[in-house]
Amino acid sequence: MTQNKAVYSLPSVLADVPMHYCPGCQHGLAHRLVAECLEELGVAEKAICIGSIGCSVFIYNYLLVDTVEAPHGRAPAVATGVKRARPDNVVFTYQGDGDLASIGLAEILHCANRGERVTIVFVNNTVYGMTGGQMAPTTLLGQRTTTCPEGRCKEHEGQAIKMCEIVAGLGGTAYAARVALDTVKNVKQAKKAVHKAFEVQLEKKGLGFVEILSTCPTNWKMTPVQANKRISEEMIPYFPLGVFKDVTSAEDKG
Amino acid sequence: MRAIAFREDRCKGCLLCMTVCPKQIIIVSNRFNKAGYKVVEVLEKNVDKCTSCAACALVCPDNAIILGPRKRRKKGEVADAREA
Amino acid sequence: MPGKPKRILVKGNEAICRGAVAAGCQCYFGYPITPQNDIPEYLSKVMPKLGRVFVQAESEIAAANMLLGAAACGVRAMTSSSSPGISLKQEAISYMAGSQLPAVIVNMSRGGPGLGDIGPSQGDYYQAVKGGGHGDYRQLVLAPGTVQEAYDLVIKAFDLAFAYRNPVMVLGDAIIAQMMEPVAVREVEAPPASEDLGWNLMGKGSRPPRVLKSLYLEDSALAGHNALLREKYASMEKEVLYESFMVNDAELIVVAFGSIGRIAKSTVRGLREKGHKVGLLRPITLFPFPSAVLGALAEQRKLFLTIEHNLGQMVDDVRLAVRKHADSFFYGHLPGNLPTPDDFEQPILQVMGVAR
Fold first, then answer.
1. Do A2 and B5 touch (CB under 8 A)?
2. Given A23, A32, A181, which is nearest B14 (Cβ)?
3. How do residues A221-232 score in pLDDT, each as one tens digit?
4. C243-355 CATH
5. How open is the CA angle A148-A150-A156, to the nearest 5 degrees?
6. How many domains does chain A have?
7. I want to staple A72 with a disulfide (CB 3.0 to 4.6 A). Which of A53, A67, B44, B64 is the partner?
8. What is the interface pTM, i.e. ipTM, of the complex?
9. What is the CATH number of the domain that holds B13?
10. Which residue of A has its CA nearest to B26?
11. Which of C310, C309, C302, C329 is nearest to C318 (CA)?
């Protein structure tokens, strides 16, 4: 195959550069979905991204929007400050599970509870990626990590935390969905969810939250294909996909 | 009709595209790119089997797959792959 | 300022609020802790009426990070707290210093360590001046000695924060916070809230995107960044402020800051009446520290006594400033007790007597 010039153009808000992520890591895909939604909604020019700590700390190299880097877990608080200071801008965070569901638990819950008009893109790969595969709050029971080498044990470490369900239960949340990136169908669903999570912000309905089940082949010690299978075989049974809250829908499950 | 095109410098050889191709025409090549990854390819003889469904491009985490230039088609207009 | 300035009788906490409002503070993020509670209480009433932002955060950590967010947008923003809460804000302060974000942090400090008490203390000097968070950084620190100064310095804090793109701390204590005094208030010309400052986040529009960050992983990038910061911190030297009182013919100079500086001034005045040649040097900026003026006084072979409401913190900086020519004695009034001018008399006379 030759290297033709792209006709199927990538969203221009996505930098056309090689990404630093490991082979098979789906951060790149999640970035693209966010970029496509920003572009389709026509809001890239007024978007402000709150980067977080973890593998996606370099998000500003890929998403070409104004960006501020938040301390570990604090992105929803930083987003609150940004949105309150600039209510006409479109504000979103991009956070991993260690960042959002462990050290930043207070910040995300209160941000959602206040109903900040921001969008939270939460990538759950059940592990601390950048620091070398330690146990995350979302690590599944039995899953081996570098800090639970015998597998996560309910008696000692408790069970994986289901953020989407918790966030959906808070009053200020307008939309909360869990999606996955393992199949074509799921990627398309994921795109719709990210879209919706921005729409509720634009409509000033409240906080939009998308939990994206994603792989970390390197720290799971799997091939990308094996890791991708793990999403449907192990993750989705525990972290069910779906829309957990949608204030714009009559069939709101929340 | 658009043929898929691999931007080999972006490919990390994760093979996720292989798993979603409905025609099973994406295979591992014998080539390594500059970054040292073994890249995927579609053999010339199989190119015509590609339906431009873009499933491979959709799941590629590294934006390594794009749809190539539109080929002349004899009849009708082909739907944009992004709506597929 | 046309005509007579308007005078009001307010607590230090309210003076801070009024100063911030006058200076065009658009966003305030707070969290309850004594003795600064009047600040979030007052601003929760006033800010919404002005169409400005008041948020009671879920924690001091969150409040400081909201401040970081607003600061990244280039709007004038402030948070306030007291000692234990200021400890929690250090993470964000370090990030703001690293990312070069302008923000104002008010610390109405109280007794420590730990939960301490809710009375006055100067136990946070090191934390404020030496960089309470991680990494190499400095923040400008302004220490008001009166309620009027609290008002004036919070206005100045915003100007400095934006002039240097750096966090600025106003370091008061429970005395300044809770004391009522007349304050001359004034109109301040504050910049518009949504100005493009060339670095702040507003959405990229048609320009290239801006990134505000403190991460520098590439080879020698962090060294370059730190060199830039060092230069900036050195350039803050010209902002030094201090009050000197009867120092010219003084044999002993008391060095004290904030409310203690003010109390020590009464002591100095009393001792002068009794014929003792004493003077006072009250640093108003703690960073930058008035080292040069202290050094010059030291050359005149004067004695120095540092008085603080702690176990001895600023005395280190005084010693460094006078070390070539003089030593500095120290009297520490322990937090938990409120000092009076009389409390400082004996320590001063002792140093004068002992040293002779």
1. yes
2. A23
3. 999 999 999 999
4. 3.40.50.920
5. 60
6. 1
7. A53
8. 0.95
9. 3.30.70.20
10. A1
11. C329
